[in-house]
Amino acid sequence: MTTIRTQVPPVPPAPLPHADTPDVRVWWWRIPDGAFSSSDLALLDRAEMENAHRKKSANAAAEYITCRATVRRLLAGMLQAPFSEISLGRKPCPECGSAEHGPPAVLTPASGRHLHISLSRSRGLGMLAVSGLPVGIDVERERDRCSAELVDKVLGPRERAIVLAAPEPVRTREFLRCWTRKEAVLKAVGIGIVTVLSELETHAGVPGPVEVTADALGSVSAWQVRDVEVPGGWTASIALPAGADGDVTVRPV
Fold first, then answer.
1. What is the DSSP letter of 56?
2. What is the pTM of this model?
3. Do 120 and 236 form a contact (C-beta atoms < 8 A)?
4. Domain count along the chain
């Protein structure tokens, strides 16, 4: 793994969302290709260090290190706590109860346990969303085109017809908007991609916010999904419970 020895400025604190309030704080940050700072590495705990070394490539390890360190800095600023007190883990999976693959959570300090957080990264860009209500965020790097196989796997019949009718590069952007909406909703539900993506209708061709219905965990839930403004080259979406009228603040790190 390659290290760049640079000083990283402290992240200014942001207001802490209260429990059960719909306000959302969203951050995005650039991830250097295949590199990370020594100050980032110093913020990881032992389990995170081991996880970084298990990554299959230098790029994957660098992205993981940069993102975990950035998330810890942001949460430390929000919670007004030392970096060393920020412990990240998972809530129990709402489907099976396992803590191995539930949604991400702040374990310590106690002042952050009420927070709902969601993380995403995609080839050069990382994101964090924090709210008092369940939240899901997803970002995807844009590509030249989407394969027919991927379109068939991810999109439902109505979505597929709208996306495939659009010319490139609009077609691929619309596909990625559908994809990030689906992943954002499933992250907010708390289960991730363990369902058939093509069964989740995300209103292709319609600018956000849109309402998406998820039939998961034995019940139907409704989610408001918004498009998130990120740098050119990426597409991002955020999901909150339907009817949540809070402010969504997006800022770069």
1. S
2. 0.89
3. yes
4. 1
